[in-house]
Write a structure and sequence with these properties.
Largest sheet: 6 strands, mixed
Number of helices: 9
Number of domains: 2
Helix content: 25-40%
Oligomer: single chain
CATH superfamily of the largest domain: LpxI C-terminal catalytic domain
Structural class: alpha/beta
């Protein structure tokens, strides 16, 4: 039996739509899925009881999809089943995103459940190599993509973010805790003539079973508002939600969408 721990955003809904059978939908308090009704809602302070409940239901597989931020933990609400997990939870709260997810994955695997990636369940979410749009990137855009890939590697080593914007070899912005949309919105008042790319990819040593970066139609709109010329994604490392609509919006607005090989 598969359980989906669903966060906010479009990914959980699209994932459920691609599954032959509806999974058990679970959500953490404060981060309910946008368009799904959760069967189980749990606070982080009762993570141990939540895991025990999954075992009792016969859950053998877990998929984590959607956005979840670090909640405030109230020590008074930690129940007996969660108390032994407190050291791991504390370390996760102090780690970067990838470190925190590795800790949670470890707890789930320790309980005998297999953690499956969203792209394993719905491989069509990963776009093919090459340009998917009518507009193609220029030689300058591809040079910016090389530069951006190097920046992402440095960011990933520090477990910071999964996106950056680059123009003419210069860094316009890097993704932080507030996400890609906020980063792009910060460029809407940029003082130059525009141009450049949005580059997205996973962190170099990221556990790809959770928190793989994603784009959707809103990303295209935000990229246009930021004055960018196109979007470059690392092949096999970025999910594209509502792919047909994303490509159609890029074509309508004159952006390119290019999927490039992972840099060695």
């Amino acid at each position: 039996m598969l359980a989906l721990i669903a966060g906010t955003g479009a990914l959980p809904t699209e994932l459920v739509a691609q599954l032959a059978e509806r999974p058990l939908i679970c959500a953490m308090e404060g981060f309910l899925p946008d368009d799904l009704v959760a069967d189980v809602v749990f606070p982080l302070e009762q993570l141990g009881s939540f895991i025990a409940g999954l075992q009792a239901r016969g859950v053998t597989e877990i998929c984590m999809a959607g956005a979840v931020r670090r909640p405030q933990v109230d020590p008074k609400l930690i129940d007996a089943a969660t108390m032994p997990l407190v050291p791991v939870i504390q370390q996760a709260m102090l780690s970067g995103d990838d470190g925190a997810l590795r800790a949670i994955i470890g707890l789930l695997e320790g309980a005998g459940m297999r953690v499956r990636a969203a792209q394993e369940i719905a491989p069509s979410l990963l776009p093919p190599l090459g340009c998917l749009t009518e507009v193609h990137p220029s030689e300058s855009d591809m040079t910016d993509a090389d530069r951006a890939a190097g920046i992402l590697r440095a960011m990933g080593a520090a477990d910071i973010g999964q996106a950056c914007a680059v123009s003419k070899g210069q860094v316009l912005a890097v993704e932080g805790i507030f996400g890609t949309a906020w980063m792009l919105q910060s460029l809407t008042q940029r003082p130059d003539a525009g141009g450049g790319i949005l580059f997205k990819g996973p962190k170099p040593d990221q556990d790809r079973r959770a928190d793989l970066p994603a784009i959707g139609p809103d990303t295209v709109t935000d990229a246009v508002a930021a004055g960018l010329s196109g979007i470059v994604l690392e092949k096999g490392g970025v999910l594209v939600l509502e792919k047909e609509q994303v490509v159609a919006e890029c074509n309508r607005l004159g952006l390119f969408l290019y999927i490039r090989e992972r840099a060695v």
